[in-house]
Design goal:
The chain is mostly helical. Helices cover about 65% and strands about 0% of the residues. The protein has 13 helices and two strands, in the order H-H-H-H-H-H-H-H-H-H-E-E-H-H-H. It has helices at about 10-20, 35-55, 55-60, 70-95, 100-105, 125-140, 150-180, 185-200, 215-220, 225-245, 270-280, 285-295, 300-315; strands spanning about 255, 260-265. It has a two-stranded antiparallel sheet with strand order 1-2. Helix 4 (about 70-95) packs antiparallel against helix 7 (about 150-180), helix 6 (about 125-140) packs antiparallel against helix 7 and helix 6 packs antiparallel against helix 10. The protein starts with 8 loop residues before the first helix and ends with a helix. Bound molecules: 3-hydroxybutanoyl-coenzyme A (3HC). 3-hydroxybutanoyl-coenzyme A (3HC) binds near residues 141 and 214.
Length: about 325
């Protein structure tokens, strides 16, 4: 069913809902409610922005990696994030927006990116902790998106999740090496985890009761789990990994609840979360200024590519 059939709006809406109810995929040429399209553009664009901005914290450690092996791994990871951003901008463009327009919304702070990237990477252990916790949280949040009702987004996520697993594994392996190293290295890892643990929990978004988008996104099959469900999944996954590293997670309320079959844990600082997502985080201004500068510096490449494409199109049509 494409949006060019001569049918009543009710017929379109019925077929859209039947596709969602049958757990099938909505494709770009299918009719979809405007609100469905808009929330997908919002979420996919912010996801893409997160991948691109997310290159910055780790990028600062590429020139300072302690060995050629660590440098090569980190280069590959940061390069992957750029690719994730491209897949996601391409998925967003199937909804009728343009990546140039989305980038403008990002650099003018009219669209968000993940709160986590507004924290500075202060020590080399942060490279491992970002891989372990941030990419680990991303995996918890992104694997269900492989079953998102919107086809291009779901398909982009399949490849991204495969690469995300390498990201998480390389971070954990780096930390394992440091935790089996000197006392100073173990302290560096603990200090880093103390800084990144709570911001990683905030990546999953506000508590369900404070999430204006979750219910509708669940009904549309965009989200398959709520923010709190995925946050719980991440905590339960991380506790045994922290034990394997010999690291303490900085939450005095963290304990196994046999009755629930899950870990109880403390409440993130939601005022900090709100401050960070509204531009007042430790590194928001720096992240956007860097992205703005990179976009300006790359303008000549975009102009040259456009001029070449125009010339080719003229030659073909002549
Ligand atoms: N950072 C910034 N903004 C956030 C946020 C976060 N961690 N969590 C929620 N928000 C914003 C939402 O965007 C929304 O604002 P908006 O309406 O202006 O867009 C508001 O807070 C309310 O949140 P909701 O829970 O109602 O919003 P969503 O239903 O969109 O849920 C989400 C938020 C869980 C982040 C969801 O958008 C999502 O799953 N997005 C896709 C995954 C994603 O973007 N992950 C980001 C990390 S990417 C990454 O980690 C890269 C990896 O390689 C390291």
């Amino acid at each position: 069913m494409t949006a060019t059939d001569a049918r009543s709006p009710e017929a379109y809406a019925r077929e859209f809902q039947a596709t969602i109810d049958a757990d099938q995929r909505i494709e770009p040429r299918d009719w979809m409610p405007e609100a469905y399209r808009k929330t997908l553009i919002r979420q996919i664009a912010q996801h893409a922005h997160s991948e691109i901005i997310g290159m910055q914290p780790e990028g600062t450690w590429i020139t300072r990696a302690p060995s050629l092996r660590r440098k090569a791994i980190l280069l590959a990871k940061v390069q992957d994030e750029a690719g994730h951003g491209m897949y996601l901008y391409a998925a967003a463009e199937t909804l009728g927006v343009d990546r140039e327009e989305l980038t403008e919304l990002l650099v003018s702070a009219r669209q968000k990116y993940s709160s986590i990237f507004n924290y500075p990477a202060l020590s080399y252990a942060d490279v491992g902790v970002i891989g372990w916790l941030v990419d680990g949280a991303a995996i918890c949040n992104q694997v269900p998106l492989c079953r998102c009702s919107y086809g291009p987004y779901a398909r982009a996520m399949v490849r991204i999740c495969k690469e995300e697993s390498f990201h998480q594994r390389q971070g954990f392996e780096l930390l394992l090496a440091m935790c089996h190293g000197t006392a100073a290295q173990r302290e560096m890892v603990q200090e880093s985890v103390n800084r990144w643990w709570w911001p990683s929990l905030m990546m999953f978004g506000p508590a369900d009761g404070d999430s204006p988008n979750t219910q509708q996104s669940m009904e549309w099959g965009i989200k398959r789990h709520t923010n709190d469900e995925l946050r719980q999944r991440f905590v339960d996954m991380s506790v045994p990994q922290a034990e394997a590293l010999g690291i303490t997670l900085p939450d005095p309320d963290l304990r196994w609840n046999a009755e629930r079959g899950a870990h109880d844990f403390g409440e993130p600082d939601w005022s900090e979360f709100q401050a960070v997502i509204t531009g007042a985080g430790p590194a928001n201004a720096q992240r956007l200024a860097h992205r703005r500068r990179a976009h300006e510096n790359g303008a000549w490449v975009r102009e040259a590519a456009r001029a070449y494409a125009d010339k080719r199109a003229k030659a073909v049509s002549a």
